[in-house]
Every structure is written in C-alpha cells, then in structure tokens.
C-alpha cells in the first residue's frame, strides 16, 4: 500500500481506509445485536402505532464516517502515532488535545491523480492541535480558516496558535500551507518551552488580534524556519508575521512579503526581550509597521542574552511610521550584528548597537534545534 511508508520510523501507521475498516469491523458485532433489538422494538412500535396515522419509525440511517471522525478517532487512539489523510477535512469542532506524539501526514491527490495538499478547514470557528508534553507533526497539509477564539481572561496566556500550540512538546511542519487562520495571539503556530521546526511552508494572510500574525515563540521556545514564505500576515499590535519573547527563532532562506503590524512594531518580525536568532539569506519586501517602528524587523530586547544576527538579508519597500526605521529598528540594551551591510532605514536607539561582523554567520543557526526534534 503506497500510503504506508516509514517517514518517522517506529510509529504505528494506519491509512484512513485501514482505520475505517477496523472501526467498521469493531462495530459489526454489537451492531448486529442492536439491529435485531431495534427491529423487534420497531415492530412493536409499528403495531402500537398502526392506527395513529404516523409513518414507520426506527429505520436505520445509513452511517457514513467522515474524514474528520477518522482523524479524531486516530488522535484519541493511544496506539496510533501517525495518521495518513487521503481526503480533505472540514471540522465541526476543535481537535481534542494531544495525549501522545502524533503526526498528521497528507497524501491527497487531485482528479488526475497528481499529489496535492490535503485541506483541513476550521470553518473560521475551530482550532487544531494542542499539546502539553507531546510531539505534533504535520506534513503536506493546507490548514485554513482555523481559529482560536480564546481571549484574555480565559487561558490565552498559554499562547494560543490556531493551528497548533505546544507547551513542553514539539512542533514540526513540513510542506504545509497556513492560510487565513486567526487567533488572539499567533495566527498559526505557537511554542512555549518547546522546539519548532518549519520547512518549506507558506504562511498567508494569518491574523492575530494582538501579537504574532503567524508564529509565536516564547518562554524558552526554540524555532527554526527554513525555505518558507510569509505573505500578507498581520498582527493587531506587534510582529506581523512572527514574534519572539524569551526564546529563539531562526529563519533561513525565507521571504517576508506584505506583512503588517497594525498598531505596534515590526511589520514582519518582532524580537522582544530575552530573544535571539539568526536571520539568514532572507528577503523582506513591502512589510509595514503602520503606526510603529521597524517596517521589516523590530528588535526590542532589554537583556544581555539577546543575540540577533542578520546574514545576507535584503530589504526592499518596507515602511514604518517612526522616522528612519523603515527597515530595522533596534532599541534598548541590545547589540545586533549584520553581515555584510547594515541596511538603509536602520534606526538604532542608544544604548543599542548595530555592528558589522560576519563571524556569527559562519554557524548556520543559533541554538540549533535540529537534534531535539
Ligand atoms: C538558500 O538559497 C540559496 C539561493 O538563494 C541556495 O544557494 C541555498 O542552497 C539555499 N539554502 C538552503 C539551506 O536551502
Ligand atoms: C498610533 O500611535 C499613537 C501613539 O504612538 C496613538 O496615540 C494613536 O492612537 C495610534 N493610532 C492608531 C490609528 O492606532
Ligand atoms: C565578531 O563576533 C564574534 C562572535 O560571533 C566575536 O568573537 C568577535 O570578537 C567579533 N568581532 C568583532 C570585530 O567584534
């Protein structure tokens, strides 16, 4: 069976068909007894109602198991660590919290049998994975319209993240599209005390009411994003595409296009206190801090451990309200390193420093999290 292949090694792999079959089989036995009971009851009721004018009742409705039901069953089944999706899913509820390591693999095909991403649609109401202590993996999935409706006063302090949030867990996303997802903070993904690894993904038009339009890394989260594109994401406050607070977020070969911080700082990225990262071979185009500073990137750390390095990045057509900061804004007690050139539109507020030093760019990423995933 071509759907079953050992990507992660050591997992239990069930295709949707297989899972469907086991479920149907498991239900056969009790169903038979139930059908007989229902038939007998039905006959009794029919006899009782025979002169009331009501039609027959109790006809068994044909039961169809949706892709969503199969996915939820796999998430709940302690023995299943990987689920292969072969059709799109439209959610009618948020996914249950993870109680184990779990990987969702998309294997969808179009009408002409060409591979395509499987769509998981949150209908603007439902959120995806939530993991306290477990690994969440996803590949070849297009998550759209996922929504985390939690607001301050509920438990928003855990980071939200409409598609996935991990606390003391791990998140890995490969070849995924995150589109039009929305949360109070972190429109798509959030990690706290957890590593995050994103490769070959697209983040489009995700939205956060407050901070971090697409990705939020905080409280010892360590993230690395490779070969991914962030476009049209926005935050009500800071970090149109992503925001880091007391954590690390590296970007390698990424493109940030048209992301917006509506009221705060950092049209694309906002590095807050106690944060670090290497941003390498990445391009910032047309990002905006409409009513703040740092059209592309804001670095607002206030601690000696902050360590932000820009390696061979390019900046074009970014804008900010604060004069002279249309590309990068650096404030507070932080030093930021550029290789090879400092960009135009760089504002440095003392005692912050901006230096040119290419040594840091020799090591690929800062606090590499590859081995921990
Ligand atoms: C990044 O992109 C450059 C070209 O822009 C390419 O040479 C390099 O191999 C890429 N690196 C990775 C890690 O994808
Ligand atoms: C822009 O920011 C200033 C403070 O810097 C604030 O007074 C004003 O209300 C903001 N405008 C908008 C449209 O958010
Ligand atoms: C450049 O950065 C490295 C650390 O990455 C440091 O050891 C070195 O002293 C720096 N060079 C200069 C001239 O500041």
TrEMBL record:
InterPro entries linked: Pectin_lyase_fold/virulence
Residues spanning the membrane: 32-49
Domain of life of the source: Eukaryota
Alphabetical UniProt keywords: Membrane, Transmembrane, Transmembrane helix
Annotated protein name in UniProt: Right handed beta helix domain-containing protein
Upper taxonomic lineage: Eukaryota, Viridiplantae, Streptophyta, Charophyceae, Charales
């Amino acid at each position: 069976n071509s759907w079953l292949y050992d990507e992660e090694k050591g997992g239990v792999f069930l295709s949707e068909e297989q899972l469907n079959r086991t479920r149907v089989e498991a239900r056969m036995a009790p169903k038979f007894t139930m059908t007989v009971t229902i038939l007998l009851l039905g006959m009794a009721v029919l006899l009782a109602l025979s002169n009331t004018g009501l039609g027959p009742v109790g006809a068994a409705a044909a039961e169809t198991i949706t892709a969503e039901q199969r996915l939820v069953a796999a998430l709940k089944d302690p023995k299943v660590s990987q689920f292969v999706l072969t059709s799109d899913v439209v959610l009618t509820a948020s996914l249950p919290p993870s109680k184990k390591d779990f990987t969702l693999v998309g294997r969808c095909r179009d009408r002409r049998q060409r591979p395509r991403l499987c769509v998981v649609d949150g209908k603007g109401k439902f959120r995806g994975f939530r993991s306290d202590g477990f690994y969440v993996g996803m590949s070849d999935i297009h998550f759209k319209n996922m929504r985390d409706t939690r607001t301050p006063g509920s438990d928003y302090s855990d980071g939200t993240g409409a598609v996935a949030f991990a606390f003391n867990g791990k998140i890995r996303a490969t070849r995924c599209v995150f589109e039009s997802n929305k949360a109070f903070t972190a429109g798509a993904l959030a990690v706290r005390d957890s590593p995050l690894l994103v490769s070959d993904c697209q983040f489009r038009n995700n939205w956060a009411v407050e901070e971090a339009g697409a990705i939020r890394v905080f409280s010892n989260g360590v993230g690395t994003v490779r070969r991914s594109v962030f476009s049209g994401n926005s935050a009500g406050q800071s970090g149109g595409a992503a925001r880091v607070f007391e954590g690390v977020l590296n970007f390698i070969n990424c493109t940030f296009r048209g992301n917006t911080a509506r009221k705060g700082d950092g049209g694309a990225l906002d590095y807050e206190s106690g944060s670090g990262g290497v941003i390498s071979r990445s391009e910032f185009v047309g990002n905006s801090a409409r009513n703040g500073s740092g059209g592309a990137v804001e670095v607002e750390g206030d601690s000696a451990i902050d360590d932000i390095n820009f390696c061979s990045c390019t900046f074009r057509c970014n804008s900010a309200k604060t004069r002279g900061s249309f590309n990068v804004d650096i404030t507070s007690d932080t030093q930021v390193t550029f290789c090879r050139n400092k960009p135009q539109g760089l504002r440095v507020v003392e005692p912050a420093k901006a230096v040119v030093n290419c040594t840091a760019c020799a090591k690929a990423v800062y606090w590499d999290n590859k081995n921990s995933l």
